[in-house]
Amino acid sequence: MILITTALHETFSKDTNEKVLFLGEWCKVYNKKPIWEKFDSQTMPYHWNDREKLYTDYQSIQIIYEKILLELSSKLNQVHQVNYSLRYWRILIGPWLGYFTQILFDRWFMLSAVFDNNQMYHCCVIKREPFSSVPNDMDHFNQQLVTDDWNEVIYGQLLELCWIDKVNVTWVEKIKQVPQLFVAKKIPIKKYIRGKVLPFLNKLFIKDDNYFFISSYLPLKTELKLQMRLGQIPNLWRAQSSPIVKPCSKQRKWQLNGEKGGEFEKVLRKMIPMHIPTAYLEGYLILNKKVENLPWPKNPRSIFTSNTYFSNDLFKAWAAKKTDWSFSFWNEEHCINV
């Protein structure tokens, strides 16, 4: 039987007479219906349609996350020859590790359900360059995880790690796509003012002990009034992107050596060095140099944000250092006091 894990056409069987098992409904994209409807196929039911299982798994994954976060924080301190607290690393790498753990568990469990019998499967996996799917930072990771390409990589690696004795893998070439031409667009006047004029004005009025607001998603008038009520000249800061750094195989030859745990924990420990964003590994020193050159307050009284604490690694690296020096870290949804 043919196992198809994503909607990528390259991984589909050319023989429509063969029986096919689609790993999920995501394999059957509507605009490719003429292709997949020809197969004599079955589709795996999605395990988290069972909401009780979803809640139970969530609780179990949180326990695993805390254990792995402790191990990975220790490893990164060792790799970078620093001695930051668990709180520092939770702010910097926690969002990625949490998402990656949940997503990997979902993909791993779906494959586990497939191979929970003596059935032998055949699966086409796309040949790719080593570490070609490693994201640059959290923002890049968020863009990747919804794509068929990234998910096909994950499924292929899981098959090799866990079920190589139960699946015959055929390596196939990726169909080359015509690159889209980049057309420069004119910058709207409002964005120009926010991007060029306001940062210049901020430098003139900044104080090291200012309350720091960034990506607050408050109405502009409300944010300006709030900053004035706090006794400071309003500053409108913009989030900046992380430096782009390519992955290096030599810097990924390390392992997490924690307690054995279950089968999924073993897989997670192997997959983390293969997928951790370069911002936390190869590009960590460059990221911190850029943090040191930020024009933001040196000793803010508090930090207020809506969602930058999740997606922007440059901000997280900056905020993690501030909280590691016993400052308060605020955002719209919660407040963490040191």
Distance from first to last alpha carbon: 56 Å
Name the helix and strand elements from N-terminus to C-terminus, one letter apiece. Answer: EEHEHHEHHEHEHHHEHHEE
Number of helices: 11
Global mean pLDDT: 87
Number of strands: 9
| Beta-strand share of residues | 5-15%
Going by helix content, strand content and strand pairing, the class is mainly alpha
Please provide a written account of the structure:
- This protein is mainly alpha-helical and 338 residues long.
- The chain has a domain at 2-43.
- Helices cover 44% and strands 10% of the residues.
- The protein is built from eleven helices and nine strands.
- The protein has helices at residues 33-36, 51-80, 86-114, 138-144, 148-162, 189-205, 220-229, 263-275, 284-292, 308-311, 313-324, and strands at 2-4, 19-22, 40-43, 121-126, 167-172, 212-214, 303-305, 329-330, 335-336.
- Helix 3 (86-114) crosses helix 5.
- The longest helix is centred in the first third of the chain and has 30 residues, at 51-80.
Describe what is shown at a glance.
This protein has 338 residues and is mostly helical. It has helices spanning 33-36, 51-80, 86-114, 138-144, 148-162, 189-205, 220-229, 263-275, 284-292, 308-311, 313-324; strands at 2-4, 19-22, 40-43, 121-126, 167-172, 212-214, 303-305, 329-330, 335-336.
Topology:
Elements: E1 2-4, E2 19-22, H1 33-36, E3 40-43, H2 51-80, H3 86-114, E4 121-126, H4 138-144, H5 148-162, E5 167-172, H6 189-205, E6 212-214, H7 220-229, H8 263-275, H9 284-292, E7 303-305, H10 308-311, H11 313-324, E8 329-330, E9 335-336
Parallel strand pairs: 1-2, 2-3, 4-5, 6-7
Antiparallel strand pairs: 8-9
Helix pairs in contact: 2-3, 3-5, 3-11, 9-11
